[in-house]
Amino acid sequence: MRPDECIHCKEFPCQDVKHDRYQVPGVDVDAQRVRLILISEAAPDCPADYYYAAGTPSFALTTLQAFNEAGINTRSIQDLLDRGVYLTTAVKCGKTGYSIETTTMQECSHLLEGELALFPNVQAYLLMGDVAIKAVNFIAKRSGEGRAIPAGSTYKIRGGDFRFHGKPALPSYVQVGPSFGIEKSKQKMIAEDIAAAFRLLA
């Protein structure tokens, strides 16, 4: 199954993102085997930096580094897929600035909702940053669950027992982009959160 063949944005209504940077994972994945979904912020400005791009995309490099620092020895994105880890973004287009409008997160959360529904055996979700957290909260509210993740700084709420569609949802920090590797304390916490997610799969 290829998610990009199942999930489509038809009208591109959002004004604060780059529509020509639209990306849904175009990778063959066994949906039945996916147990952990990592959701980061937005598609990269350069398509060659996306998780599943050929070569050594930056999204893959920093994500693999984070998993290895968590004690999950892996050499490629395919290794993660083989372990049942699926990677995607909350917003499917590239950003035009530092932040993303709330209306854009809400609009794109409909695409994310359809994407997550493709994976029936997920046991946990890693929410990497505020955009992913807000997108998942939009989905949860539409389904009548209320907020999956409470309001508050990530530093204060990470490690809490939160649920999304009945499964653990772990709020963390963004593991892609130029800030990863600069803020060592956040890098350490990202590794801790990834390790915690893997313990839930045991």
Describe the model:
With 202 residues, the protein is an alpha/beta fold. It has one domain (3-201): Uracil-DNA glycosylase-like domain (Uracil-DNA Glycosylase, subunit E, 3-Layer(aba) Sandwich), CATH 3.40.470.10. It has helices at 58-69, 77-82, 102-116, 130-142, 154-157, 184-201, and strands at 17-18, 36-43, 85-95, 124-128, 163-164, 167-172. β5 and β6 (167-172) form a beta hairpin. α1 crosses α6 and α3 packs across α4. The longest helix is centred in the last third of the chain and has 18 residues, at 184-201. The mean pLDDT is 94.
How does the SSE layout of this entry go?
Blueprint (H helix, E strand, L loop, with lengths): L16 E2 L17 E8 L14 H12 L7 H6 L2 E11 L6 H15 L7 E5 L1 H13 L11 H4 L5 E2 L2 E6 L11 H18 L1
Helix pairs in contact: 1-6, 3-4
Quick overview of this protein structure:
With 202 residues, this protein is an alpha/beta fold.
Q: Helical proportion? A: 25-40%
| CATH architecture heading | 3-Layer(aba) Sandwich
Name the structural class: alpha/beta
Number of domains: 1
| Count of alpha and pi helical runs | 6
- What series of H and E elements makes up the topology? EEHHEHEHHEEH
Please identify the top-level CATH class. Alpha Beta
Terminus-to-terminus distance: 25 Å
Which ranges are low-confidence, i.e. pLDDT below 50, for 5 or more consecutive residues?
Answer: none
In the CATH hierarchy, the third-tier topology is known as: Uracil-DNA Glycosylase, subunit E
| Rg result | 15 Å
Which structural traits does this protein have?
202 residues, alpha/beta, Uracil-DNA Glycosylase, subunit E, six-stranded mixed β-sheet, 6 strands, 17% strand, globular
